Fold:
Amino acid sequence: MRKDQLVWACFYCTAILLLAAACGRLTTDKDGIPATPLLAQVFNYTLYYDDIDELLQGFSTPQDSLQQVRSITEHWVRDRLLLVEAEKKFPKDVNLNKLLEDYRQSLLRHFFEQQTIAEHLDTTITEQNLQDYYANNREQHKLESGIIRGYFFKIAKPLNRNDKILQWWRTFPDQHLDDVLRYMNRQALNNWADTSQWHEMQLVIQLFPLHTLSPQTIRSKRSVVREDRDYIYLLYPLEVYYEQDIAPLSHIREQAARFILHQRELEILERIKKEIYDRDIQDTRVKIYTE
Structure:
């Protein structure tokens, strides 16, 4: 026997003896060899050490293992007590065997469908796929609230006498785009420079001083400058959509992709089901007696 095997065997035997001493239940088989300890019994349910052995890998000492055994056993007892109580209250007129069979069949169908989808689903979604979806489903994507895509910055006052940020802002972003972004990377307390992101209009409004900005005053490619005692707020919307507008494709791309994949899954399942039906309906073991 190799050294590592011997160490593990000693560890196992020590753990068994500790468990036996703790549990007070160490049975023997017909040859008188110690069997697995009985850890707990709840009415007709029993828990043996072998039932949880695989959960106990990775412990450095028998004492650590014993502590984990006690924890698992306690959880098992609580679970079985609840199960016994549930069995008492289970309606007598319910056909449990039928419920189990229905559940088994449901699991089999689910496994078959998931496996079939995994084998046949094309997960590639092209820009044309998205454009086609958007063209056919535009009216389903009316916005419940306004959204904005653009730049937003918040900077502290007072400005340095040499700062040109407000001067640059007058022609931003057509001019001085890089100057503004570099400045904001150093100075801005809020820096929304990722113009691919869409933001809820009300959230943006809440970032400004109270009552200084409304949905009606926000327009695409029109800069907004607001101030209070401590800060300057700068907004440049590249695109603005209001409540009940049709959402742009860039806002619903992920949702559109999920819909496209779901439709493909449904089409795959319908095709496979038809193929199975057409293949097996002529089998002599398939009989329909209502025709």
